[in-house]
Write a structure and sequence with these properties.
16% helix; 7-stranded mixed β-sheet; alpha+beta; 6-stranded antiparallel β-sheet; 26 strands
């Protein structure tokens, strides 16, 4: 197994050396992290959009907040039908957990042995007493809360964290000591690995570095890619770009990392076959957000082309008949026009068996920027390059 892994890495490095648009460091790591099991349910539309406001520290509009409060937070679903979040295996102190990779945050937190037995139920947990390399970071704490009422908090250890072929030897691991019911019921998700910039890490009083910042000097190239897929697990590649995962040239746009996010400017949009409208849209690329949140003018223009679509204040967002034919939406990245098929915009039924569906495109009201979440990312191959920094986007074969 180890020989096979080394061969795969060497093959990847050889390919990079032959033709690569970025700097390759000799004798350093390049590896793939496949996504694994999907959770058995997804957040309802109102819960999904409310969570975004809490994540970014913004007050949710009253109707969004009310809709989330009136909803149980989940929709039973076949993961292949509605694309529940997929997770990635991460080894912490020799213990393997399934974590959600999130380019919109900078904390690595995990379910832990310090939770009550009922809170641990159904989860793999990190137990620092079972690791010979764990060390308590005395006085350090962390806390997160989201607009749907979910949250977690606890203390902090340093330990070895292995993702694919690379290990961070003294990575800050945030242990959950208390956690909300919303996180507990998501039984396959054991925590989160943040991949935004380290300046928005929430540990206090001493901010900690992300896993990527700690290991990027060991990678063949200081980047990672996300290849999220519709209806099945995708993968993240660290240290190299797999040419087999995209079908056209990669177009790069500069990133403004001043706010800690992979922030960029989208230069316009088109709905269906309509003409492209040039406009500057301040945006971030976020694997940890399910939906595609855009300015209200863009969202209104999109749903104007959907028969039966309306803004439903009881749901905090746009809904439409599940049988509706949805147009594509095109979004501009420099000279590249990224097309999201209409079928990707149907997020999920309002409730199990409902004939009304919640839109995967919603307003970004009050957030201050647009968020290109999984609805967008499943349609494209995306490169997160710390040199620049910059984002790369390319077309790929869609299922």
């Amino acid at each position: 197994m180890r020989i096979q892994q080394q061969f795969s890495v060497l093959s990847a490095l050889a390919t990079l050396a032959a033709a690569s648009p970025f700097n390759v460091r000799d004798s350093k790591a390049a590896f793939t992290v496949p996504q694994t099991v999907a959770k058995p349910f997804i957040k309802s539309g109102p819960a999904a959009i409310a969570a975004v406001y809490g994540k970014y520290g913004k007050a949710a509009p009253a109707d969004v907040k009310a809709a989330a409060a009136d909803n149980d937070g989940t929709v039973s679903a076949n993961p292949e039908s509605y694309d529940s979040e997929y997770l990635c295996p991460v080894t912490i102190g020799g213990q393997t957990l399934n974590l959600d990779f999130d380019t919109g945050s900078s904390d690595l937190w995990a379910f832990s042995s310090e939770l009550s037995a009922s809170s641990q139920n159904g989860h793999s947990v990190y137990d620092p007493s079972r690791s010979s390399t764990s060390k308590l970071l005395s006085g350090e704490t962390w806390s997160i809360s989201y607009g749907d009422g979910s949250g977690a908090s606890g203390n902090v250890y340093a330990d070895t964290v292995k993702v694919g072929a690379t290990t961070a030897t003294t990575q800050a691991v945030e242990l959950a000591q208390s956690i909300s019911a919303q996180f507990q019921q998501d039984v396959n998700n054991d925590g989160l690995l943040g991949l935004a910039f380290s300046q928005i890490n929430t540990v206090t009083p001493d901010q900690q570095k992300t896993f990527f910042d700690n290991v990027k000097s060991t990678l063949a190239a200081p980047l990672f890619t996300a290849n999220l897929l519709k209806g099945k697990p995708g993968s993240y590649d660290f240290g190299y770009i797999d040419a087999a995962k995209h079908t056209g040239a990669i177009t790069y746009v500069p990133v403004n990392s001043g706010n800690g996010f992979w922030e960029f400017t989208c230069n316009g949009y088109a709905v269906g076959s309509a003409a492209f409208t040039s406009t500057s849209i301040d945006s971030i690329m976020d694997t940890g957000t399910t939906l595609l949140l855009l300015p209200s003018t863009v969202v209104s223009a999109y749903y104007a082309g959907v028969s039966g679509a309306r803004y439903d204040s009881t749901q905090g967002g746009y809904t439409f008949p599940c049988s509706a034919t949805l147009p594509s939406i095109t979004l501009g990245f420099g000279s590249y026009k990224a097309v999201v098929p209409g079928s990707y915009v149907n997020y999920a039924p309002l409730t199990t068996g409902s004939s009304t569906c919640y839109g995967g495109i919603q307003r970004n009201t009050g957030i201050g920027f647009s968020i290109f979440g999984d609805v967008f990312m499943k349609s494209q191959f995306v490169v997160f390059d710390s040199e620049g920094p910059r984002l790369g986007v390319a077309p790929k074969t869609l299922s």
